[in-house]
């Protein structure tokens, strides 16, 4: 399916349902499944290796698919446009799925920027904007209070990821995981966002208002449902040609691109976003 899409570059990140791509998780499953036969354990190991071979192998490369491991990635297109992507498949522990971390664990910030009560486990922390400009962030899960509300109204995104996003301030942060959160919003960061994203406070203090001073405004992108059904997508143009270009470093377009709705039916439209990129 991805191979049939007319695009020069197709980037893929795993998520909590992609169990076979999380080798550590599969290994733990095999250890804990004492009732499984040796044959079943062997099959699980083979399936895990086969999944990674498919996404990282020649077949994927030949159709322009790049599987993103957690960390930083740089790309250059034939047009000369270049951009940097930070990717992570990890989400806060939920129902024993793949790529998990505990709610009190910070996977995205250096220890110097972690919340005071967080256990820092970051192997590939997101750098500050001043250190290494990130154009695009692709994570499976959402940051806290950004398109992360469940059908019960709870915000279940990651507070540590929000802190990291505020530090990095990419042009685009794309995620999914919370199906009900489908949508997009244009976030303008406050002038003192750097200070806010480094101030010492607990996770509870951060979630109950500590982060708010770092966000000047958040404007939800309106969706024309009739047009969306006709075009089978939602188009957002924030390039210079639109007259409402995104301010690099000052704004981030947040997109919850979950195709599945809350009933696990693939009915949500895709988002097609136009942004300016630096040219080498």
From TrEMBL:
InterPro entries associated with the record: Metallo-depent_PP-like, UPF0046_metallophosphoest
Gene3D superfamilies: 3.60.21.10
Record's protein name: Calcineurin-like phosphoesterase domain-containing protein
């Amino acid at each position: 399916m991805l191979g049939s899409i007319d695009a020069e570059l197709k980037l893929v990140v795993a998520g909590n349902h992609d169990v076979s791509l999380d080798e550590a998780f599969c290994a733990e499953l095999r250890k804990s499944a004492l009732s499984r036969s040796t044959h079943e354990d062997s099959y699980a190991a083979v399936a895990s290796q086969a999944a990674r071979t498919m996404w990282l192998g020649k077949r994927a490369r030949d159709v322009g698919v790049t599987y993103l491991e957690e960390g930083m990635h740089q790309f250059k297109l034939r047009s000369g446009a270049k951009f940097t992507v930070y990717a992570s498949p990890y989400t806060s522990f939920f129902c024993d799925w793949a790529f998990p971390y505990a709610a009190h664990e910070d996977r995205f910030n250096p220890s110097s920027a972690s919340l005071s009560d967080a256990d820092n486990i970051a192997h590939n922390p997101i750098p500050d904007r001043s250190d290494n400009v990130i154009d695009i962030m692709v994570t499976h899960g959402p940051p806290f209070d950004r398109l992360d509300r469940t059908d019960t109204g709870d915000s279940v995104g990651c507070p540590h990821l929000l802190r990291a996003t505020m530090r990095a301030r990419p042009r685009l942060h794309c995620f999914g995981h919370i199906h009900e959160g489908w949508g997009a919003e244009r976030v303008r960061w406050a002038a003192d966002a750097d200070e806010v994203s480094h101030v010492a406070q607990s996770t509870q203090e951060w979630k109950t208002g500590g982060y708010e001073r770092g966000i000047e405004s958040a404007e939800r992108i309106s969706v024309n449902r009739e047009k969306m059904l006709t075009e089978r997508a939602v188009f957002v143009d924030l390039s210079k040609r639109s007259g409402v270009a995104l301010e690099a470093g000052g704004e981030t377009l947040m997109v919850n691109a979950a195709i599945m709705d809350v009933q696990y039916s693939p009915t949500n439209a895709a988002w097609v976003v136009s942004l300016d990129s630096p040219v080498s």
